[in-house]
């Protein structure tokens, strides 16, 4: 299994965003430390997801960076991405592992220690843990768990914990101190005036 980068960029395909430009800027700075998770709107077609993922995978290959696919594991397989990420509304972790195979990177969303341990036992190779802080990027999330919630999950598992939800360079140190191996962001890069600079700030906060 490839070693996991510590800065995860989750693509923002909402109207008015330019995910490929943001990926390009982040890759130029973070290189192999970047994991790009291709996440499209639920309304996007599989063809749209496939086309975007192929382009992102091509960008990542230049830098030896990892490309994962959110939810749509058939797209991950179709483009030979490194793996995928699943949550409560997606395939169960064990089924996702069967689909992707033993060597793939498989992330699972977990918000508390018991489900985190279950996800790891079912085959997750990392956990996405959050929302750590308030975010406007995704609707319907539970209350933020904060660094204390991250600490509880990190203490319960032996796989990398990736903190997500409202993460900024300013909030990274407390999350790392709580046991996060890395962070996943949408807005901190997608909405940045200068995504390359924002990438450097996030890497610096991670101690990379
Ligand atoms: C790193 C990471 N953590 C959590 C999530 C959320 O996944 P999920 O709960 O399946 O929600 P959607 O992203 O599918 O809306 C994630 N994508 N990445
Ligand atoms: C897609 C997603 N999942 C979350 C979870 O907690 O499961 S938070 C989130 C959105 C993260 O975006 P931003 O970095 O802009 O806050
Ligand atoms: Mg999902």
From TrEMBL:
Free-text cofactor note: Binds 1 Mg(2+) ion per subunit.
Domain Thiamine phosphate synthase/TenI positions: 7-189
Residues at which 2-[(2R,5Z)-2-carboxy-4-methylthiazol-5(2H)-ylidene]ethyl phosphate binds: 135-137, 166
Keywords tagged on the record: Magnesium, Metal-binding, Thiamine biosynthesis, Transferase
Positions bound to 4-amino-2-methyl-5-(diphosphooxymethyl)pyrimidine: 37-41, 70, 109, 138
UniProt cofactor(s): Mg(2+)
Family from the record: Belongs to the thiamine-phosphate synthase family.
Function as written in the Swiss-Prot or TrEMBL entry: Condenses 4-methyl-5-(beta-hydroxyethyl)thiazole monophosphate (THZ-P) and 2-methyl-4-amino-5-hydroxymethyl pyrimidine pyrophosphate (HMP-PP) to form thiamine monophosphate (TMP).
The name this protein goes by in its record: Thiamine-phosphate synthase
Organism this protein belongs to: Micromonospora nigra
Gene field: thiE
